[in-house]
Specification:
mainly alpha; 12 helices; 69% helix; globular
């Protein structure tokens, strides 16, 4: 069969090319989208401005149906794959469920493009913008927990999370990641701003990653790191467009997470790591002495503190749940046996 000639790395390369072609197609559609009247530029940076001034019921129906059907089909594919394969079944040759997942994602990317072309509005009309941001942030936090056993959490040092916690993250992450990505994908119309274009490249590549379940490239540390770090240019570009200097918080915040955690899973030589540390230090010294006031340097720690804190809160919830489960299990096993009828 023709499909048997492709391996996982070729699909990754094809996904990168496709994401670039999608950006070109979105730019080409930009002129058509000027016919739609969107809300005035808001003063509140938390108000999503790329939505129709007048709500259109057909636009909302098509967007929500697209999101819901896309999500259910991908969840079904993940469920089937996990039911029939285990971590011992990793290979570089794609199986039918991989092609099915790729086909589903490709179909709904095309449908979302058409939906934007004809109706413009996505699901952002009905929900606040912070929900899409929170979904992606939580995905990145889960990755920090999953990768703790491989690269550590703080400068290569591992946090002694219970194995059941990290195993649970690994087992169910596909369902959550697909929700976060597909939710974000259908939240935004396909419009040609730099922030949106980088964002669509990011979500399409994560869809490719999600389609490559039980493939060796799914675990490739360089590929997964690229997916993780792409949030930095995307967040920076979006923040830059919003103005007000919030780009510093996102740029330095995500760079700090790279230096504290992500860099230590790449096998870099010590001098390379020191070079990154030095470049980061010079950048923040210049930024907070020349470009802005020194007291604003607290921006650097906001995103790292939030992400690490949320991860430990998640672990705390897991420990509480495990304690409650253990308590009731002891309660039921230690209860005296009831006398049989007639005794």
């Amino acid at each position: 069969m023709l499909l048997d000639r492709f391996d996982d790395k070729q699909v990754v390369n094809g996904g990168i090319i496709f994401s670039i072609l999608l950006c070109i197609a979105i730019i080409a559609m930009g002129g058509v989208l000027t016919q739609f009247e969107i809300i005035p530029l808001p003063d509140d940076g938390f108000v999503y401005e790329w939505q129709l001034l007048e709500r259109d019921s057909i636009a909302q129906l098509t967007a929500w149906l697209g999101f819901a059907i896309h999500q259910v089909l991908i969840w079904g594919t993940i469920w089937w794959a996990q039911k029939n394969y285990t971590k011992r079944d990793y290979t570089n040759k794609l199986r039918p469920f991989n092609w099915i997942a790729i086909g589903i994602n490709l179909l709904f990317v095309i449908l979302h493009y058409a939906q934007t072309y004809f109706f413009y509005d996505a699901i952002a009309q009905d929900i606040p913008s912070w929900t899409a941001q929170f979904a992606v942030a939580l995905m990145l936090i889960v990755i920090l927990g999953m990768e703790n056993q491989r690269r550590g959490l703080f400068f290569g040092k591992k946090v002694p999370f219970r194995k059941a916690f990290t195993d649970g993250l690994r087992k169910y992450h596909g369902y959550f990641f697909s929700f976060a990505v597909i939710y974000t994908f259908w939240f935004h119309p396909m419009i040609p701003t730099w922030g949106h274009l980088v964002g669509f490249v990011h979500v399409v590549l994560i869809m490719v990653q999600g389609s490559l379940m039980f493939m060796r490239v799914h675990l490739d540390k360089k590929w997964t790191f690229m997916l993780e770090i792409l949030v930095l240019p995307h967040a920076f570009q979006v923040a830059l467009g919003q103005g007000g200097g919030i780009w510093r918080m996102f740029a330095f915040g995500f760079m700090a997470i790279f230096l504290i955690t992500q860099m230590h899973g790449l096998g870099l030589k010590p001098w390379v790591r020191r070079l990154f540390y030095g470049g980061f230090l010079v950048s923040i010294l210049y930024t907070y002495t020349v470009l802005t006031e020194p007291f604003m340097a607290n921006e650097i720690i906001r995103i790292p503190v939030i992400e690490y804190l949320v991860l430990f809160i998640m672990y705390g919830i897991f420990l509480l749940g495990a304690w409650i489960s253990s308590f009731f299990k002891r309660l039921t096993t230690s209860a005296p046996a009831q006398p049989a009828a007639g005794d």
